[in-house]
Amino acid sequence: MKNKDLKNIREQVYILFSNLLQKPNKNIYDELKLGRHMEIWEQYRKISNTIPMPKIWNSKKFSEKFITLERWKKLWKKSLNFDNPRIYLIESVYKPWTTDESCEMPFAKEKGHLLGDWAHHMKYLYEELGIEVPVNFAHCPDHLVLQLEFMSVLVKGGDLEKQYSFISTHLDWLECLVEAAKKKGLTKLYYDLLIWIKKYIDTEEDFLENSILDKAT
Amino acid sequence: MSKQVDRRNFIKYSALAGVSAFATLATACNDGEAEETGSEVQDDFPVDEKMGILMDNSLCVECQACRVACQNENELPVEQALISFKSKEVGSYPDVKYHFSRHSCMHCEDAVCKDGCPVDALSKTEQGFTTLDFESCIGCGMCEQSCPYGVPSIFEEKMYKCDACQHLVTVGESPACVSTCAANAIKYGTYDDLVKAAQQRVETLQERYPEASLYGLEEQDGLSLLLILKTEASKLELI
Amino acid sequence: MSITRRSFIKGSAVAAGALGLSLTGLDFKGWAAKAQESEVKVKPSLCNTCSSHCGMWIHVKNDRPWKVTGHEDNMRSQGKLCARAHAGLYWIYDSDRIKQPLKRVGEEEFESISWEQAISEIAEKLNDILEESGPEAAAYGHNPRETGVFYGNRLMHALGISTVCTHNASCNTARTLGFNHTMGGVPHADLSNSNYVVLIGRNLGGGIRTSELIEFTEGVKEGAKVVCVDPRQNDSAKIADEWIPIRPGTDLALVLAMCQVIVEEDLYDKEFIDNYTLDFDKFAETLPQYTPEWAAEITDIEADKIRSLARELAENKPNCLVHPSWKGAFGSNYENSTETARAVAYINALLGNVNQPGGLFFSYNSPEIGSLDTLDPEEPQTPRTDGVGVEGEFPLATSHGLPHVIAEKAAEGIVKSIFIRHHNPVRNFPDYEHMVAGYKNLDLLVVFETHMSETAILADYILPECSFAEREEVVEARGGADRGSVSIRTEAVPKVHPETKSFDEIIVLLAEELGIEEYFDFTLDEVNKARLEPLDISLAELKEKGSISMELPEPSNEVEFSTDSGKFEFYSEDFARYGFSGIAGWKEPAVGYKTANNEFKVIHGKQAYHSQTVSANIPQLAQITKDYDSNRIWMNRAKAEELGINDGDKIKLTSPIATKEVKVKVTERVHPDTLYMPAGYGNKTPYYETAQKIDSLNPNDLTPYQTESIAGHAMMQEVIVKAEKA
Hints:
The structure holds three protein chains of three kinds. Chain A is mainly alpha-helical. Chain A is about 60% helix and about 0% strand. Chain A is built from nine helices and no strands. The radius of gyration of chain A is 18 Å and the shape is globular. The two termini of chain A are about 20 Å apart. In chain B, the strands form four sheets. Chain B has a four-stranded mixed sheet. In chain B, strands 2-3 form a two-stranded antiparallel ribbon. In chain B, strands 4-5 form a two-stranded antiparallel sheet. In chain B, a hairpin with a 5-residue loop joins β4 (about 120-125) and β5. Chain B contains nine helices and ten strands. Chain C is of the alpha/beta class. In chain C, about 30% of the residues lie in helices and about 15% in strands. Chain C is built from 25 helices and 27 strands. In chain C, strands 5-4-17-16-15-6-7 form a seven-stranded mixed sheet, with helices on both faces. In chain C, β9, α9 (about 210-220) and β10 form a beta-alpha-beta unit. Classes of the chains: A mainly alpha, B alpha+beta, C alpha/beta. Chains in contact: A-B, A-C, B-C. At the A-C interface, α1, α2, α3, α5 and α6 of A face α1, α2, α3 and β3 of C.
């Protein structure tokens, strides 16, 4: 496969995952029914064949019999909605609030809080690039949906070092996320999706690390 | 009048005459310096003299403000508290007394913990406090075993104990437990001033509580955390 | 195609593949190291973990709070802070805060909606209710502090709604009513200068107001003799000279008997009685029956003890006091609480301690606050739906109102709409099911909140306020002996959730939609400037300093009362007019004063590190509960032995309305007829996960809905339970 195709498909996978985590809408539902996501994944599997797609995300499941659009919306609302989600898809929640040694807040080193260092660094990155974050993400610029999209932009830019730097500092919390999802009994649809994403990110990190090493030698 | 003198007078004065802490603080705020620093009152205690913390158990209500202020000031995990309280009921209803005492590092002059530390992580400061080099500490628990007061606590391979807020006292401020106490029960100052104030207070207390005493003058060659007790808390194993 | 389309990140940066971003920019460690170098700034605020509003400095770095310290120029904090204040910053970043306006779509199921939708739907529904059923069908409930009173009451008055309630009917309305009808108000207790202090249930070391704890301990240090009367040995008793256990609900008998001794033995201040009081003789005539022997049988305190207590107290007159208390023993607990409050006022009058050092002060001054020159709505003359001031219901009850009665009226369909702010009546009044039934039956329940409280989860609309550290509020003034202060909350940190709003902003939006914007033709800054005008302090200066203290004239020793007669009134015309006793006399608690062998009265009281039911969800405070195992109910040791109950056992309590289990602490420090349950546990909201880990009994689950006859309060402790090993 050509480098350009590789780049394109990786970029698309990031956007795909970001879209699958968002509030469901008719357009995406229709495309899922058509199996558009399966096509993208098949292409990616030509590069790395280690991760199977979870069965529950098969396009056949997105039908009147199984997951209707209404039901999908309900599942999303129950699992990932912004106001009272079962689990938070936010980096700060899974990491110590700050690495600043002078912080005297009781939860300085605790996890579970919003707007930690991680969020502030994301905010800084958006500002640097003149990217405006939608208002409902103000308390969580480090939301996974945004981070996956951001990663897609870095992939598009083609600089492997930047991609690796981002993935290793900002997407290294997915194991905790999956654990939390298990503990909280997240719906299977989304639990499987999170595992899927985590495996992809792990593979990506290895891929980037190796590519950089190859380049160096 | 320099600020330092002001502050030391305050300790004596309040111990002797019970001047309202508020009045003194208000005066402290009225000088120009306070405004420049965002109008926070800056303590200005000596940094090169023997200092101490005086805990008056006869005024403490165990409200736990010192514990939480300390946790915040020292960035402690929620589960770790450097200040706790030991208590005991003596007698039976209705003639029951409730005795309790602050339990935290006593800052012994003869610090057994320091002598036993295999990595020399513990040391005594010029001000008389026992401090820990957190980086060097290996959490072996030798100090925990040797401490006569059972103070050190090992958590995630590090030892935790009060260091009298070194980052504050070394710049002339008072430890967090002292600044937050609303019960007039904890004072910070030069060791000699505190001893004088404490002895006076104990004398007063003895009129009503003959067993009242000052703990810490003799023990382990002297403690930098001095305790005013209404009873012989040492016999009750509260210390 | 949608599935491969970017949703949020757009623009030139994307087209260029973020080429503009340097690799160093992506380096988190480098960024964090630089961020660490930022300066820590101190921003002033007022604490919100209880309603005392202590002044504090929030230390802020990179827009985030780092720690808090007490504000020295604030009368409430005087440079000090309690445990709750330090731990309360947690609220700002709690991931379970309410972030968007929410609308109920099912049982405890909410959907987020826009402010426009929320405001227009609420206004439309409220207007319909007002049109169909009149302003009597609507009510407002809150914790009455400056911002809530200014904006909330104003909105209600503009709509003709007279039923404005506070939490006080579960706190101190009986105390206030009793003092109003004798002394004409509630005085300040000069604890720091007193020689002899009797605390009846008032626990200064547990129900903390920082300034009062400072004064109290100064008094103790200066040698005041302190006597604590309480069925349990409370936190004040730890530093007091004496603990006198008493049967719950019998404090009135003790006070009457002390009065009897003081009058019979001529120990009272005759000059004060002659010059400043009315109808002493009528009171004195009733006293012979109240002998210490009579009281001993009721209170379980020996007659000689009562005699010596009365004599010692009187020997110290006028520099002594019986504390006017807050909730304590007679704020809202018993059928006889209003009468107890009047009797406590009587005994202080006998001591002649009014405006005397170490006594009770009415003459403290307060900074003079100005008011905005604007169109004020008239106070509505609509009869109050909770029966306050209504003949045949609660003609003498205070304007603090009766939220528990409102719940009853809501269940009956008489009240249809309630607005609630900074107040959690559903959990904090007796009989949870009763409160839920009422509030659920409303056509429109609007709750202004930061978190999903027990009241919020029943709301039709929840309007998210920003946290105390993110909002500006109305300027507050506090008086004192010879100093006072003005204070303000400021935006110490930027809003975490941009869709949250401060209360004044929300009220103005509502007013506009309701068509009464003419009453809100000003900004918050204008309100505050007007308030500061007489003080020659600029708003900008106050916002920077947070609290500013000032000298005030020394309180006068002249005696003057704000009663109709200007004198202390032993006999109350008002009480007599409505069929109550003109002179306060003995009245039994509603459930009597004695209990059978396996029966107990359940009392409750605050711990210094919790505030009602809002703080159990704060991890640092919950940890204290865990460390000291302090969410257990106290039972007297001898009684426990009789019942075969050991320390740490679970016991089963059966009251007229429920059976509950709770872990027991066996102790010598509580009266044998009494179980003491620390307050602040037993959250019912599923959103407070930390609180669930220290879940325990809330006495409101055992006490039935009831109303005291004079003040109408909730009689929080009128319940007898059977106890057995679970």
